[in-house]
Amino acid sequence: xxxxxxxxxxxxxxxxxxxxxxxxxxxxxxxxxxxxxxxxxxxxxxxxxxxxxxxxxxxxxxxxxxxxxxxxxxxxxxxxxxxxxxxxxxxxxxxxxxxxxxxxxxxxxxxxxxxxxxxxxxxxxxxxxxxxxxxxxxxxxxxxxxxxxxxxxxxxxxxxxxxxxxxxxxxxxxxxxxxxxxxxxxxxxxxxxxxxxxxxxxxxxxxxxxxxxxxxxxxxxxxxxxxxxxxxxxxxxxxxxxxxxxxxxxxxxxxxxxxxxxxxxxxxxxxxxxxxxxxxxx
Length: 282
Ligand SMILES: NC(=O)C1=CN([C@@H]2O[C@H](COP(=O)(O)OP(=O)(O)OC[C@H]3O[C@@H](n4cnc5c(N)ncnc54)[C@H](OP(=O)(O)O)[C@@H]3O)[C@@H](O)[C@H]2O)C=CC1
Ligand SMILES: Nc1nc(=O)c2c([nH]1)NC[C@@H]1CN(c3ccc(C(=O)N[C@@H](CCC(=O)O)C(=O)O)cc3)C=[N+]21
What we know:
This protein is an alpha/beta fold. The protein folds into two domains: 31-121, Leucine Dehydrogenase, chain A, domain 1 (Rossmann fold, 3-Layer(aba) Sandwich); 140-261, NAD(P)-binding Rossmann-like Domain (Rossmann fold, 3-Layer(aba) Sandwich), CATH 3.40.50. The protein has ten helices and eleven strands. The strands form three sheets. The chain has a six-stranded parallel sheet with strand order 1-11-8-7-5-6. A three-stranded parallel sheet has the order 3-2-4, sandwiched between helices. Helix 2 (44-60) links the parallel strand 2 (34-40) and strand 3 (63-69). The relative contact order is 0.18. The protein binds NADPH dihydro-nicotinamide-adenine-dinucleotide phosphate (NDP) and 5,10-Methenyltetrahydrofolate.
């Protein structure tokens, strides 16, 4: 049996169309959601992701502002820029594209973003609220994955979810959201002994490793739902963390790369920006 392909590109488009209608209504009331995207240096992958974010903002009707700074910017200057954006009433969302140059401490930069404008859901306040189940802007990639699962009709409650990767931006928060949706969750990482023995038990397998096509058919239980978060440039093309051609033959559903989780991440950023604008108001 070949797996159903979970079409993130199409689902993300639906989310953006819904948001476009919502933004038009907010505009009638005089509220225009504003997003500031801060890009330090000219990391090629970041350039491409940032372009996607600006394009999506235009489509939805969000006022986006791309703020570029040289990689030589000091940490203090960057923190000052964020303070200025925190105080700017036209800006409801602030995103600082990662990674940052080595001389800048990303934790310090993130912690300076006002939690009300934290559309990435990365600040300690947002993370804390998410952990204790209080209202918070959720990090975009895990939020997007939950949407994909829900809109594809995947049952989560009572299922065994295995997450490979434990980063702050993907692995850790998706584990938490799945657990909150009543899955039983196993978290794996680079020190996990016998990875396949864990992943083979997954009803829902989340791959967030950053290693091209690392997870193969040998890691997957027949009938599993496989979500591939990886975006790796490998031998001139874009591939996930999952060996797609092989795994699609045994999984019941799978996300492709590109066209799976990536577009959903951007759609959730749009959603968080609209949400932040509504909460902050005019
Ligand atoms: N589609 C999207 O919207 C997004 C895609 N991504 C992509 O997702 C992938 C992961 O990103 P991110 O979480 O930021 O990456 P990180 O590098 O921050 O984290 C990778 C995680 O994978 C674990 N890991 C590394 N090697 C192995 C291994 N051999 N076996 C098991 N676990 C391993 C690491 O373990 P340890 O903690 O022990 O080091 C770590 O927890 C990347 O390809 C990235 O480009 C990221 C964000 C958004
Ligand atoms: N502050 C911050 N917030 C982030 O959300 C953030 C970040 N920094 N740094 C890097 C990661 C990575 N990330 C992606 C977003 C979209 C795609 C995406 O749309 N990918 C397309 C392909 C894009 C292409 O062709 O290059 C797809 O999978 O179909 C991928 C990766 C967000 N990140």
